[in-house]
């Protein structure tokens, strides 16, 4: 029978006949306790809805058992946040840690939520994305010796935890695929210029185009942050010119839909007059049955690895806290 009121360690002790100190150690998976005892205590705690008092925990141990993920609202809309959260929570399963989402709104500097978290010690670690070349958030966290993991890479010389997708390899392989399809000029709508993976995409496309003996261009006046209408209109304009691209590498599903729509508006038949290769991170994209080829980017797996490397950093590890996800090219022919 569930007790009335908020369950405490004493509540579980009364239900099990064990000492409060034993209950505490069992909930923290103390290895000196029998597995049967740990399982029994944790099962009862879950059944009665026990949650640790974070304020008391912080006063006693200096820890909060909280990991914060910083997300922009549009990252949630496009599915990135949903998949990342799914992976992180898998990594935190069977640990004492809880995941808390901190929103980053467009009128707020990205460093501000980081400063708030560190100054007030409201989490034991933080995860964020959109890494820049010399990201001030990474610099701040390194200087304050605060555990973190970043989705993406920076150019800071100090080793720090990150998980990234090999965007250079993706752009390289996608460009070679378009060349094999007969494309003579390929294009890409890039992320913002401050983001590190922008240069990775450019490097991969440039190298492949040079090897294949074809031309490449980087879309001007629009980027991945541009409204989809702006991307679509840009593609229409370029596709109608005699020197327009006949192949597109897309760095996101949303931009791919805008590119495909623009090509159709310009009278180009994708798969015949023009070809498109895009990253795919969700089943949503294929619901539109586009005539584009896709390369999977697994954000759930990225989330799992972000959670894992951050837990290791919190535990005091400092070596080998990076993970690179590689594209797999599985073309239809």
Class of secondary structure makeup:
alpha/beta
Computed Rg: 24 Å
Mean pLDDT: 89
Query: What is the 3D form?
Result: elongated
Main beta sheet, described? Answer: 6 strands, parallel
Q: How many DSSP H or I helices?
A: 13
How do the strands of the widest beta sheet line up side by side? Answer: 2-1-3-4-5-11
What is the oligomeric state here?
A: single chain
User: What share of the residues does DSSP label as strand, in percent?
Assistant: 15-25%
Kindly, what is the distance between the CA atoms of the first and last residues, rounded to a whole number of angstroms? 61 Å
The total of beta strands comes to 11
Element string (H = helix, E = strand): HHHHEHHEHEHEEHEHEHEHEEHE
Sequence stretches where pLDDT stays below 50 over 5 or more residues:
none
User: Helical amount among residues, as a percent range?
Assistant: 40-55%
Domain HTH lacI-type: 7-61
Keywords: DNA-binding, Transcription, Transcription regulation
GO molecular function: DNA-binding transcription factor activity; transcription cis-regulatory region binding
Pfam families: LacI, Peripla_BP_3
């Amino acid at each position: 029978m569930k007790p009335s009121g908020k369950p405490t360690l004493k509540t579980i002790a009364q239900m099990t006949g064990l000492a409060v100190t034993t209950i505490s150690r069992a909930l923290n998976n103390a290895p000196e306790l029998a597995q049967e005892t740990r399982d029994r205590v944790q099962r009862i705690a879950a059944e009665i809805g026990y949650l640790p008092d974070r304020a008391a925990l912080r006063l006693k141990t200096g820890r909060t058992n909280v990991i914060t993920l910083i997300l922009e609202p549009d990252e949630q809309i496009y599915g990135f946040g949903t998949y990342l959260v799914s992976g992180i929570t898998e990594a935190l399963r069977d640990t004492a840690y809880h995941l808390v989402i901190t929103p980053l709104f467009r009128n707020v500097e990205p460093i501000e939520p980081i400063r708030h978290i560190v100054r007030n010690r409201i989490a034991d670690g933080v995860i964020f994305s959109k890494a820049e070349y010399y990201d001030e958030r990474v610099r701040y966290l390194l200087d304050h010796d605060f555990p973190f993991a970043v989705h993406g890479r920076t150019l800071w010389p100090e080793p720090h935890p990150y998980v990234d997708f090999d965007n250079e390899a993706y752009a390289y392989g996608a460009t070679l695929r378009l060349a094999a399809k007969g494309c003579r000029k390929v294009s890409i709508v890039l992320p913002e210029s401050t983001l590190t993976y922008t240069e990775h995409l450019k490097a991969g496309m440039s190298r492949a185009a040079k090897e294949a003996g074809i031309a490449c261009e980087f879309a001007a006046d629009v980027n991945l942050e541009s409204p989809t209408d702006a991307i679509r209109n840009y593609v229409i304009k370029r596709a109608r010119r005699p020197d327009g691209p006949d192949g597109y590498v897309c760095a996101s599903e949303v931009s791919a839909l805008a590119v495909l729509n623009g090509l159709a508006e310009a009278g180009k038949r994708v798969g015949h007059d023009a070809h498109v290769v895009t990253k795919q991170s969700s089943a949503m994209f294929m619901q539109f049955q586009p005539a584009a080829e896709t390369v999977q980017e697994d954000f759930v797996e990225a989330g799992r690895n972000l959670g894992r490397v951050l837990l290791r950093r919190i535990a005091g590890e400092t070596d080998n806290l990076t993970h690179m996800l590689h594209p797999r090219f599985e073309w239809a022919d």
